[in-house]
Specification:
mainly alpha, Four Helix Bundle (Hemerythrin (Met), subunit A), 2 strands, Arc Repressor Mutant, subunit A, elongated, two-stranded antiparallel sheet, 10 helices
Length: 238
């Protein structure tokens, strides 16, 4: 191959952005009118042939672009703003927030299991300290989740697998820097959704007791509950 040949790099498409762009085009052309209520997430998932988490992420992208607004107890409605008429919806700056939770479900289940087998006394003490910090942060105003990140990354480090630990750190880096994830988690905090002390306590106890399968199950239960909590609540519903 000629080394001077110009090749355009191939980027992996985000499925939620493809959905959001189609809806944005219909809004911009007037096919979906101003103040019109969008179909439910379940109906949109059927129309596009995608999962509800993908539709939820598309709604977040449209809301960031100021093309839609969520009305409490009513649903998602089209807006008409100058910002929303921009040619590009939003920068493709990382996986969607629900994609990240799903990835964490699989990866962090294994880091928790390995931590239960491999953590030393110092690791256990550090994880316990992060657990206490989560409780303090939940009571802080405004609430933030630095301790939650520390809890999960400390478990990954306690797995003694540097590749897995690096993967978990990267997932949390996306969570704390991606525009989509920042917007999503700020909404969650404003609505009163905070890290569950009970969930994290169960994960910690399983690791402390050297119960690998229990740690895996506790982590899966925690992140599975987080994902279900988001997906099962329709935007705008009470």
């Amino acid at each position: 191959m000629n080394s001077s040949m110009k090749i355009q790099s191939i980027k992996q498409e985000r499925l939620y952005l493809r959905v959001a762009e189609q809806l944005a085009d219909k809004i911009r052309t007037g096919e979906i009118g101003v103040s019109e209520r969008l179909p439910s997430e379940r109906d949109l998932a059927g129309l596009f042939g995608v999962s509800r988490p993908t539709i939820r992420e598309a709604m977040i992208a449209l809301e960031i672009a100021d093309l839609v607004e969520i009305r409490s107890g009513s649903g998602v409605y089209v807006k008409s703003t100058q910002a929303g008429m921009a040619s590009k919806l939003m920068p493709d700056d990382g996986p969607g927030p629900l994609e990240l939770i799903e990835a964490r479900y699989f990866i962090e289940g294994e880091t928790a299991a390995l931590a239960a087998e491999r953590a030393n006394d110092t690791d256990i003490a550090l994880i316990a300290g992060a657990l206490q910090d989560i409780a303090r942060e939940n009571e802080a105003s405004p609430a933030h989740e630095d301790a939650d990140e520390a809890f999960h990354t400390l478990i990954a480090m306690a797995s003694k697998n540097s590749a897995l630990a690096a993967m978990v750190e990267r997932l949390w880096e996306w969570r704390t820097t991606s525009e989509m994830s920042l917007f999503f988690h700020e909404q969650q905090r404003r609505s009163g959704v905070l890290p569950s002390i009970e969930d994290h306590q169960k994960i910690y106890e399983a690791i402390r007791k050297r119960d690998a399968e229990g740690a895996r199950e506790a982590m899966h239960a925690h992140l599975g509950r987080v994902l279900a909590q988001v997906v099962e609540s329709e935007p705008g519903s009470n």
